Amino acid sequence: MSKEKYCLVYITTKDKDEAKKIGFELVSNRLAAGVNIIDKLESIYWWEGKVQNGSEALLIAKTKESIVPALIEKVKSLHSYEVPCVVSLPINEGSHDFLKWIDNEVN
């Protein structure tokens, strides 16, 4: 296993279809070893000077820290939002086999 650092990338999307489209692109392009999609996420947030409320889908990508800049650019190129939420969260510890899987699947 490499000395690479690993992370989860948290991405919100307008709906499950957009999450699937982005997820397939991330995995197909080896920017993520895999993704999880959680549909019907309720979101409350500030946008254009007022509090908004709506339904979204959540996409969580498993990847290496060094890949995150390329992953963010790919998400931005596919995403419908003007300012998409794409944030990386470090994996501090994890199953050796799981982290090795990420190593084997991500370029």
UniProtKB/TrEMBL annotation:
One MF term in the entry's GO annotations: copper ion binding
Q: Which domain of life is it from?
A: Bacteria
Annotated family: Belongs to the CutA family.
Put simply, this protein is called: Dihydroorotate dehydrogenase
Q: Which SUPFAM superfamilies match?
A: GlnB-like
Q: Name one Pfam family in it.
A: CutA1
| Sequence intervals crossing the membrane | none
**GO BP annotations, alphabetical order:** response to metal ion
Query: InterPro entries per the record?
Result: Ion_tolerance_CutA, N-reg_PII-like_a/b, N-reg_PII/ATP_PRibTrfase_C
